[in-house]
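Long-time lurker, first post. I've been practising inverse folding by hand and with some scripts of my own, and I keep getting stuck on stretches where the structure tokens seem ambiguous. Below is the full token string for one chain I'm working on. Before anyone asks, I'm not after the true native sequence, just a reasonable design that respects the backbone. If someone could post their per-position residues I'd love to compare against what I wrote down in my notebook.
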């Protein structure tokens, strides 16, 4: 019933038939250099790019996911790339019953869509519509935008004209907004977006609309 705490208490002893194992330090370094990036290191690198711990953890959960993300994010905003991969792409994979190893949209094609957003050719709302068409047809984002005339409206005059028409058609709501009903701003934004087919630049639209309503 005596306690046993140390190796000698169990009467362990070195096996006399086993030769000492000696590994050359250079061999250890060679193996270390040849090892792929481990998940913890990859996660830390993604977080250094601005990703949350959660998003970074999701992206490093599988090697194929990490490789897809890195291809999409190459030369692009990592946060935007992560959002499109973890939300839009994952949603499509789940709906279609596919895996990241057989994506319905390639990393290169998704990167092309993000480029159109970054260059203000299309806004996020239009981008989601374009993504759905990409899933269905396999066409490139730029070709879809050109084919369907989805280029974002950044012409100040065109946006102002649409705003003026909406304000003229809703004088009662304009009066209510100026009387303190700030929530009506969303109504005007929605109506103007509808009038422009959802193609108005959101930032320009908001600035111009607020200037006209508060001016």
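-- Answer (accepted) --
I ran through it position by position. Result:
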């Amino acid at each position: 019933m005596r306690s046993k705490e140390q190796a000698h208490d169990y009467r362990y002893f070195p096996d006399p038939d086993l030769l000492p194992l000696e590994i050359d330090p250079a061999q250890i370094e060679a193996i270390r250099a040849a090892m792929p990036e481990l998940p913890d290191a990859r996660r830390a690198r993604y977080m250094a790019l601005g990703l949350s711990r959660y998003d970074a953890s999701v992206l490093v959960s599988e090697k194929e996911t990490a490789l897809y993300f890195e291809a999409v994010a190459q030369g692009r905003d990592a946060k935007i790339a992560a959002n499109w991969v973890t939300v839009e792409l994952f949603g499509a994979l789940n709906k279609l019953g596919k895996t990241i190893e057989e994506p319905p949209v390639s990393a290169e094609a998704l990167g092309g869509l993000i480029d159109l957003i970054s260059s203000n050719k299309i806004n996020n709302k239009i981008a989601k519509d374009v993504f759905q068409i990409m899933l269905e047809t396999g066409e490139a984002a730029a070709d879809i935008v050109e084919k369907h005339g989805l280029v974002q409206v950044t012409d100040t005059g065109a946006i102002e004209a649409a705003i003026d028409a909406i304000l003229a058609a809703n004088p009662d709501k304009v009066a209510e907004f100026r009387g303190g009903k700030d929530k009506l701003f969303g109504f005007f934004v929605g109506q103007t977006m509808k009038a422009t087919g959802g193609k108005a630049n959101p930032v320009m639209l908001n600035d111009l609309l607020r200037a006209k309503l508060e001016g």
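A couple of notes from the structure itself: The chain has two domains: 39-147, 156-214. Residues 156-214 form a domain with the Arc Repressor Mutant, subunit A fold (CATH 1.10.10.410). Happy to go over any region you disagree with.
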